UniProtKB/TrEMBL annotation:
Source superkingdom: Bacteria
Listed GO MF terms: DNA-binding transcription factor activity
Name of this protein: Transcriptional regulator
PANTHER family with a match to the protein in the record: HTH-TYPE TRANSCRIPTIONAL REGULATOR YWGB-RELATED (PTHR33221:SF15), WINGED HELIX-TURN-HELIX TRANSCRIPTIONAL REGULATOR, RRF2 FAMILY (PTHR33221)
Length: 150
């Protein structure tokens, strides 16, 4: 089963947009997201509807951040993507009358729901601004390490 990496890719693109501070074309964002411009435009449309980005056509146009990064959480971005399924695992439904299958499925369904709730709660605690700050700190540390090398 292929993993859904849209949240990671979109967060990657949003950080590039925030750091750039000027519009980025769908082609530039496609390079960041390792996809094609059509996918970028389709994905960004949901973010535009949520008010996180805006687009301008013509020379010098493109996609840019349209929100306060500190007011948007990773959960907000996840929701703007249509709240894709978080868990790749599921339950076996081949013998619904089997009491063993019913027991296993009740246990797994509860465990999956609890795990998903924990992840959603975590996504609510991280803002795009925190992610951007973490990125900048990582860049600064990387530069310091490079300066120390002979």
């Amino acid at each position: 089963m292929k993993r859904d990496s849209r949240l990671s890719a979109v967060l990657h693109a949003l950080l590039h947009m925030a750091e750039r501070g000027q519009p980025m074309t769908s082609e530039e964002l496609a390079g960041c997201m390792m996809t094609n411009p059509v996918v970028v435009r389709r994905t960004m449309a949901g973010l535009r509807e949520a008010g996180f980005v805006r687009s301008a056509k013509g020379h010098g146009g493109g996609w840019e951040i349209a929100c306060d990064l500190s007011a948007v959480t990773l959960k907000d971005v996840y929701d703007a993507l249509g709240a894709p399924q978080l868990m790749a695992m599921g339950i076996h439904l081949e013998s619904p009358a089997c009491l063993v299958e019913q027991t296993v499925n009740r246990s797994l369904t509860t465990a999956f729901a609890e795990a998903e709730a924990l992840l959603i709660d975590r996504l609510r605690t991280v803002s795009l601004a925190q992610l951007a700050d973490d990125f900048r700190a990582h860049v600064a540390a990387h530069k310091r390490n490079l300066e120390r090398k002979p």
